[in-house]
Write a structure and sequence with these properties.
Elements: H1 2-13, H2 27-34, H3 39-44, H4 47-54, H5 68-75, H6 88-96, H7 99-120, H8 132-168, E1 172-177, E2 180-185, E3 194-197, E4 206-218, H9 220-223, E5 228-230, E6 240-241, E7 246-258, H10 264-274, H11 286-320, H12 328-349, H13 353-371, E8 374-376, H14 379-385, E9 390-393, E10 405-411, E11 414-416, H15 422-426, H16 431-443, E12 448-453, E13 456-461, H17 464-475, H18 480-486, E14 488-496, E15 501-508, E16 511-519, H19 520-525, E17 527-531, E18 537-539, H20 542-557, E19 561-570, H21 572-583, E20 594-603, H22 610-619, E21 623-627, H23 632-642, E22 650-653, H24 654-658, H25 662-669, E23 672-676, H26 680-692, E24 697-701, H27 707-712, E25 715-719, H28 725-730, E26 733-735, H29 740-781, H30 791-809, H31 833-861, H32 866-887, H33 905-924, H34 926-929, H35 936-947, H36 949-958, H37 965-968, H38 979-1006, H39 1016-1022, E27 1030-1036, E28 1042-1047, H40 1051-1061
Parallel strand pairs: 9-21, 9-24, 17-20, 21-23, 22-23, 24-25, 25-26
Antiparallel strand pairs: 1-2, 1-3, 3-7, 4-5, 4-6, 4-7, 8-26, 10-11, 10-20, 12-13, 14-15, 15-16, 16-19, 17-18, 19-20, 27-28
Helix pairs in contact: 6-8, 7-8, 7-12, 8-13, 8-30, 11-12, 11-13, 11-29, 12-30, 13-29, 13-30, 14-29, 16-17, 16-18, 20-23, 25-26, 29-30, 29-31, 30-32, 30-33, 31-32, 31-36, 32-33, 32-35, 38-40
Length: 1066
């Protein structure tokens, strides 16, 4: 016993960091820190510094590259094992697991048994071939073909979705390695890495908070509590960062301690995979749900028809054979044949291909959309986007190229008006201004240079605005890396949408200095001083403030983004007071008593094709609105350049929108084309108000706080390049190139998916009705109670109209013609008036033609052989479907059904395959399909009759809407404000403003000032006024803005010129 006690004491004295590997801490011990959060263990291990030492990492410089593979082998890689995909044989079982297919198999086996029994019976005539087994075998082969085809489609669909999921998981993170910030793939993240997190990041590994500022995380994915959890780099439970949590605010550096399957998120995901009760949920889109309901209704029709057929044929058989002496085997054989026919009717009538058509269309569309830089995260968004009625888009990086350059600037009231004039400008200002500019830009920024080693190329990563400012600092001789290295950052306030600014506080000798940059008018409002050209601090009086404001307005009117740079020096006691206020929950840096360094104007040109895309959206009936954080003049100029702002449109600032009641907001938003100085909350308000007006809203966003608006919108678009992970997680579609033009492609693909499903629906319902009616009538009127179309023939038709038709009609590529119609209402029915006309018209035509051939074909075609006649009817029926499928390519009333058919290679391939298979079936499939070879003349006749579907389709399309049904059930979405209406209202407003100008000038002409002479009016019109300018307030325009004339008025021509320019509507 004493010995054991000594051993226990010895074990307790062993350091906890002792380990058997190169690293003096085990993965298991690190995992114990997180799940659950174990502060006591962290203290036992010696704290963060001891863990960093055990992992051979310096938190200030990060790890080196030489131990990365070793770290991966010891602590694991940052990815999860791929989930086991379904094997092909499993997909076959799933495809076969259909009640009607199983019933048909049972009936086929019974038929096969009876047929073999008859063949082996001694009563079988010796001069007839033993082919009783053929029908049962043929049905089994047909069932196998249908099952295999469905399984192959599912297999292809799974592979396509796997590729999409792999693209979704392709994420990048920023780490500190060898003293340099690097952007790496998330899969390359290893234990020991110093992970740099910013607002919007989703943390992809477990870690310990090392350093940072105001870091707050959303850990609701782990805890279920949707609240901000503050983090502190000390011995606190809040120093642990859980994988899967989202960074909401602040910045920080995190020591990674668990990755992949060892992380909290990884273990949760692996547990879900192992849970036998956790079944994979099938993602049903709204269109699939509608089709499921429709398919159920059609299935009821098919089952009713088959039951009626079963009862009728059974009664008829027993009535007609009542006086005949039939053996039990003969009765059983006949009844089995009747049952097979009725089950086949169910197989044909039940449209199991409808959901498959949606899945196939979505699988094809999402794969192709990825090539068009649209990563679809939510399948429903693809089809919803097709009927979007309004698009609310950001400006920066979406409409513009996000390639920002400082083109103008004013510091010390001295301007440079182009980048080439920067060096000359430096000679006109004191060096202190340049020093403040370079230091402020360098420390008050999170952008950095990343080195791509293949080839060696330095590229900036981070905010494009900050990159433009760093490039300006570099042109002035500044080295931001050196400045950051030698600066002690005491506190950092990341960019906040509410204040439109970012502030960094650094320690300087015995005081602190805060550098601020942000929206020019907001920062200027907080400034009480500015730096003059001589480097002295000067009071911001009214005259100088107006001069700064004029610079901002002028640059903004030229579609330039203006950024103000300012600073303030603080004594230690002021800094302590500010920190205490932060701890008490004050919202950000106190923007007051700042010293303005200067203002820069940044150019971000429009993307090529944006103007054309906006015009295309307008043509398609989609209203485009720009929601931006820029000031109202910059936003107005860019919106006008992009074609978004038109006559009659309204420009609002976010402050004006917030001041309105909900009802006023709904009224104004209907005509609003630009919202300036907006915050993420304003985006959410816009989405809510538009949805209250029954609009289908597409919204773009890239920031963390854009998440609620993106999730609330009918289709949320996040930015793949500049967007945060939080925004991407909240969105439905990720724009991989951040390009507005890609949204137009998403609209086209959405409409293509909806149209593809409707085309398939039109085709399938036509075949359903025709096949069921023809089979029923021919079987009931037949002496042998047999349908003119055998069970195997109907199964081939079912294959044509389900799998092959879905492949042909649901995989067409989009056409620009789709932009020539308005979006459909979200309440529109799946089957519209045009589709009903085509379905009923073609079905009646096919039924009539086939029944005429059944009952009068012998006389018409001069054919006496019953087998030849039945084969001709079968061939005729199939080719009616082949040509009707071409007919169904257009469901918009267009006459030319062959338009762009050469571009649709899948459709052409499917048609060729069907025709070849039909030729082989007719020529060589006699035993299985009950066919005989046809002559060339008979082939020409049957194909020509099938081709009649095309002219019949033209006739159906030109049938006028006599009863006004189409107008009454118009499926187009009702626009809130059409562009034509806005143009009219804008023109009326223009005339109204001209009349106001004329009235004001006439009034001033008719009312001379007291004591004036009689020739006052002559001098007023034909001589130069004594003052250089005249200001007349006329009233308010359509945008509720004052209409002022503040121009020199010289003679009558000046009045005309002023009148023409007085209209402030866009």
């Amino acid at each position: 016993m004493p010995s054991n006690n000594n051993d226990d004491d010895e074990e307790q004295r062993q350091p906890l960091l002792g380990s058997r590997s190169l690293f003096s801490i085990s993965p298991e011990k690190l995992m114990e820190l997180i799940d659950p959060k174990n502060l006591a263990l962290l203290k036992q291990l010696g704290g963060i510094d001891a863990i960093a030492s055990a992992l051979h990492v310096d938190p200030s410089t990060g790890i080196s590259d030489d131990l990365i593979q070793t770290r991966q082998s010891v602590f694991g890689q940052n990815d999860l094992p791929k989930a086991k995909a379904k094997k092909f044989w499993q997909l076959i079982i799933i495809a076969y697991n259909d009640k009607t297919i199983i019933l048909l198999t049972i009936a086929a086996i019974i038929s096969l048994g009876i047929g073999i029994g008859q063949d082996l019976s001694p009563d079988h005539p010796s001069n007839q071939p033993k082919i009783g087994w053929v029908e049962g075998t043929a049905i089994l082969v047909a069932v196998l073909a249908v099952t295999l085809t469905n399984a192959i489609n599912d297999f292809q669909k799974e592979k396509q979705f796997q590729k999409l999921n792999a693209k979704k998981e392709d994420k990048r993170v920023t780490v500190l390695r060898m003293g340099r910030e690097q952007c790496i793939n998330a899969h390359d993240l290893v234990v020991g890495d110093i992970l740099i997190v910013e607002p919007g990041d989703v943390v992809l590994a477990d870690g310990i908070y090392v350093s940072g500022y105001n870091l707050g995380c959303d850990e609701s994915s782990a805890t279920g509590e949707a609240e901000t959890v503050r983090k502190h780099p000390a011995y606190s439970n809040d120093c642990f960062i859980l994988s899967g949590s989202k960074v909401l605010e602040g910045v920080g550096r995190v020591l990674v301690i668990a990755v992949g399957t060892n992380s909290f998120f990884g273990k949760t995901m692996m547990a879900l995979r192992r849970d036998p009760n956790a079944t994979q949920r099938q993602e049903n889109t709204p269109l699939q749900l509608k089709l499921d309901v429709l398919a159920e209704q059609i299935a009821k029709f098919g089952i009713g028809a088959s039951l009626a057929m079963l009862i009728t044929l059974t009664i008829k058989y027993f009535v007609t054979t009542a006086h005949e002496h039939k053996t039990g085997a003969e009765i059983a054989s006949t009844m089995v044949n009747i049952v097979i026919q009725t089950i086949t009717i169910i197989v044909v009538a039940v449209p199991e291909g409808l959901p498959m058509a949606v899945t196939m269309a979505l699988a094809f569309a999402t794969t192709q959309m990825l090539k068009d830089n649209n990563l679809v995260r939510v399948l429903a968004a693809c089809e919803t986007m097709g009927n979007a009625t309004t698009i609310c888009t950001d400006k920066t990086g979406t409409l513009t190229q996000n390639q920002m350059t400082v083109v103008k600037g004013m510091f010390g009231l001295q301007q440079f008006k182009d980048p080439a004039g920067v060096q000359e400008w430096t000679g006109r200002v004191d060096g202190k201004i340049i020093q403040l500019l370079v230091e402020g830009v360098s420390v008050n920024s999170t952008a950095y240079e990343d080195i791509d080693t293949t080839p060696i190329k330095k590229t900036f990563l981070g905010s494009k605005t900050e990159i433009a400012l760093l490039m300006l600092a570099r042109s002035l001789g500044g080295d931001y890396v050196t400045i950051r290295r030698h600066s002690h950052i005491a506190k950092l306030y990341p960019f906040a949408s509410k204040k439109k600014s970012m502030t960094t506080v650094i320690g300087k000798e015995n005081k602190f200095r805060a550098y601020t940059k942000g929206a020019s008018e907001i920062v200027l409002r907080s400034c009480t001083h500015y730096i003059a050209a001589n480097g002295e601090k000067v009071d911001m009086d009214k005259k100088s403030r107006q001069r700064w404001e004029r610079v901002i307005d002028k640059d903004a009117s030229e579609a330039l983004r203006t950024i103000a740079l300012a600073y303030i020096d603080m004594e230690p006691d002021q800094y302590e007071t500010m920190c205490e206020n932060d701890d008490q929950g004050d919202d950000g840096f106190p923007m007051e008593k700042l010293v303005l360094i200067g203002i820069v104007a940044i150019e971000d040109p429009l993307r090529p094709g944006v103007v054309e895309s906006v015009a295309a959206f307008r043509r398609a009936g989609v209203f485009v609105r720009m929601v931006t954080g820029d000031n109202i003049k910059t936003a107005t100029a860019i919106a006008r350049n992009a074609g978004i702002l038109t006559k009659g449109g309204i420009v609002l600032s976010a402050s004006e929108l917030r001041a309105m009641s909900p009802e006023e907001q709904r009224q104004r938003i209907s005509r609003m084309q630009v919202l300036a100085r907006s915050s993420p909350t304003d985006k959410t308000t816009v989405v809510v108000r538009l949805q209250e007006l029954d609009q289908v809203v597409g919204m773009t966003g890239d920031g963390t706080n854009d998440g609620p608006a993106l999730r609330l919108a009918d289709v949320g678009f996040s930015m793949g390049v500049t967007g945060t992970e939080v925004a991407k997680e909240a969105s439905d579609i990720v724009l991989m190139d951040d390009n507005f033009n890609s949204i137009l492609k998403a609209l086209l693909w959405g409409r293509t998916v909806n149209d593809g499903v409707r085309k398939f629906l039109t085709f399938q319902l036509t075949v359903n009705v025709a096949a069921v009616v023809i089979s029923f009538i021919s079987a009931v009127t037949s002496e042998k109670a047999e349908s003119v179309l055998s069970a195997v023939q109907l199964l081939w038709v079912n294959l044509i109209m389900d799998t092959l038709a879905a492949l042909a009609l649901a995989t067409e590529r989009p056409s620009v013609d789709l932009l020539d119609r308005k979006p459909a209402s979200k309440y529109a029915h799946l089957i519209n008036y045009r589709m009903v006309k085509m379905i009923l018209g073609q079905a009646i035509f096919q039924i009539t033609i086939n029944l005429i051939a059944v009952y009068a074909g012998h006389q018409i075609f001069q054919v006496q052989d019953e087998a030849v006649m039945r084969t001709m009817v079968f061939n005729m029926f199939v080719f009616l479907q082949v040509f009707n499928e071409i007919n169904c390519r257009r469901i918009d009333g267009s006459i030319n059904v062959f338009k762009n058919i050469t571009h649709d290679w899948i459709f052409i391939t499917v048609q060729i395959v069907v025709i070849l298979c039909q030729f082989l079936i007719v020529t060589f499939g006699g035993l299985a399909f009950n066919t005989v070879p046809l002559t060339i003349e008979q082939w020409i006749i049957t194909v020509a009759i099938g081709a009649l579907s095309l002219p019949v389709g033209v006739i159906i399309r030109v049938i006028p809407d006599c009863c006004g049904i189409e107008r009454r059930y118009n499926e187009d979405a009702t626009p809130l404000a059409s562009y034509s209406r806005l143009n009219w209202e804008g023109a009326i407003g223009h005339i109204r403003n001209q009349l106001r100008v004329y009235s004001a000038l006439r009034k001033s002409y008719q009312t001379p000032p007291p004591g004036s002479s009689n020739n006052y009016h002559a001098r007023r019109f034909f001589s130069e006024p004594p003052s250089d300018s005249a200001s007349v307030t006329i009233g308010r325009d359509d945008n509720n803005n004052n209409v002022n004339i503040s121009n020199p008025i010289r003679g009558y021509g000046a009045i005309v010129k002023t009148t023409r320019s007085a209209d402030s509507s866009p």
